[in-house]
């Protein structure tokens, strides 16, 4: 079985090129933190992701450096000869599915919060529109509990 699922953040904007048959091919790299023992320095892996077709075009259109994504796909290895005649081995993740885990605005807010000085939390909006406010359970106030019995 050759199946992989990854969640990480883009290290750069996706690059799209087109094949001779006009199929879009997007490539980008994501950063994935490795589990570490307490007290150890954080380490990360940076797998290269390849996406084809309409999904590749959507990645170019909607993803930017720093966006959090979930990738589902397979590992593919290959090799080529570089200019010096040396064989270079490659390992890529060929994505069958790319899920955008946050909007562009959320990524921008996240990067801005990471840049603000420690201890400053006063830059959050005072309130959100009523339709997006949620109580402590994470349920929007417009949600009404169903009183009827569920038929399953």
Automatic annotation (TrEMBL):
Homotetramer. Signal peptide: none annotated. GO terms for biological process: DNA replication. It holds the Pfam family SSB. Residues 105-116 have a biased composition (Polar residues). One of its GO terms (molecular function) is single-stranded DNA binding. This is Single-stranded DNA-binding protein. It comes from Hornefia porci. CDD domains: SSB_OBF. Keywords: DNA-binding. Transmembrane segments: none annotated. Residues 102-152 are annotated as: Disordered. One of its GO terms (cellular component) is nucleoid. The keyword DNA-binding applies.
